[in-house]
Design goal:
Elements: H1 2-29, H2 49-59, E1 64-67, H3 77-84, E2 88-90, H4 98-110, E3 115-119, H5 139-143, H6 146-153, H7 156-169, H8 171-180, H9 205-208, H10 211-222, H11 236-253, E4 258-263, H12 268-277, H13 279-296, E5 302-306, H14 311-314, H15 328-340, H16 352-363
Parallel strand pairs: 1-2, 1-3, 3-4, 4-5
Helix pairs in contact: 1-7, 3-15, 4-11, 10-12, 11-13, 12-13
Length: 369
């Protein structure tokens, strides 16, 4: 019996040593760069932006952050820096809602951001769980609480990433491991922060973005079998509350931060789809836009830009992969429009661009190939 207890004790001690050793490895390597910028091994980054942003905010130098959804995810920081003459950090998250975005921005501002470039669309303000109940974003990781740090250090996935980072730092293995990283079951595979969720530079734009794809997406979402989804999550009163809480509340808490907020250039087909298949949803979008324009243009630290009625972009269906997601060509135009301020909403006539959009949507007729 004594031998059994001795063996059990040894097993427990060995297990504890392995667990603590694994945690020590993660702390030393710190693949997320949560404690410090990478020093022991080369830095690598992940496309899991809800997780990666927690490390980027702590490890990168920046004075400007870009926030948004999938409509802003493909910007490159180098392009933002060059066009807007800033030191930027891209924090866009695909499919994110206003609670997630506001929470992440709060932490970025606390770390020194003096300017926020924020892509805001109507879907952003749909109902969402409280940030501490959100299964897709670890609030404790951003806050650096004991729970968040422990979850990070004792994560088997992070141990795997740390071990891979060590192997990748061995000179004979560095090049082959770096080349193989995108094809291996590891998240931290990007060697350049500029490549986080950016399209490959050699992407076939004509194949990825064209009128055929945009029109096919329009036909799909307006099919009577699926058209009800156009209004899913849209509720005017709730969306206004979320806008006031997550956007206006954040802006007012930081009067020394400049917010460049823009309404993105959806293709005209998005609004026409609502017009034809879900007019009640389109009314909510228009009404919510009116509130956003009137409220934001009255805040002294906000510059609101509306890109939704720029026909040269939004009516050229070759710019789109579906009815909303635009090509890198439009990304470049967005940056130039922000730099010039050409489409900034005038506080004296905050609804002028909305009225122009309404006129375009009312007059547009879909031309099927």
């Amino acid at each position: 019996m004594r031998g059994t207890f001795t063996n059990l004790k040894r097993l427990l001690l060995a297990s504890a040593a392995c667990v603590l050793g694994a945690a020590a490895l993660t702390f030393a390597v710190d693949p997320l760069q949560l404690f410090r910028p990478s020093r022991l091994v080369s830095a690598f980054y992940s496309d899991d932006t809800r997780m990666q942003n927690a490390g980027l905010i702590r490890s990168q130098s920046f004075d400007t952050v870009l926030m948004g959804s999938s409509l802003a995810i493909h910007f490159r920081q180098s392009d933002i820096d060059r066009v807007l003459d800033v030191q930027s950090l891209k924090l866009a998250m695909t499919g994110s809602n206003s609670r997630q975005q506001g929470f992440v921005l709060e932490h970025a501002v606390a770390r020194g951001a003096r300017r926020v470039i924020w892509e805001i669309d109507d879907w952003l303000f749909v109902d969402a769980p409280d940030i501490d109940a959100d299964p897709y974003l670890s609030a404790d990781l951003y806050r650096g609480t004991p729970k968040g740090i422990a979850t990070y250090l004792f994560s088997a996935a992070m141990v795997k990433e740390s071990m891979f980072a060590v192997l990748r730092s061995i000179p004979p293995l560095r090049e082959p491991m770096t080349r193989a990283a995108p094809f291996l079951p590891v998240k931290f595979a990007l060697s350049d922060v500029d490549d986080i969720y950016a399209l490959p530079r050699d992407v076939d734009r004509a194949r990825a973005y064209n009128a055929e794809r945009a029109l096919a997406a329009f036909a799909y979402i307006t099919d009577p079998v699926r058209s009800r989804f156009l209004g899913e999550g849209y509720g005017y009163d709730a969306m206004v509350r979320h806008f006031e809480r997550d956007a206006v509340g954040l802006i007012r808490r930081h009067p020394d931060v400049t917010f460049d907020i823009y309404l993105p250039p959806y293709s005209i087909l998005q609004f026409v789809a609502m017009r034809d298949a879900s007019p009640a949803t389109l009314k909510i979008v228009y009404d919510l836009t009116a509130v956003i324009a009137q409220r934001l243009t009255q805040l002294p630290n906000v510059r609101l830009h509306d890109f939704r009625a720029i026909k040269e972009a939004t009516h050229d269906l070759g710019n789109y992969s579906d009815v909303i997601h635009h090509s890198p060509i439009v990304d470049a135009k967005v940056l130039s429009w922000l730099a010039s301020g050409e489409y900034r909403v005038n506080p004296k006539t905050p609804l002028a661009s909305l009225d122009e959009l309404k006129a375009q949507v009312g007059a547009y007729r879909v031309k099927q190939p």
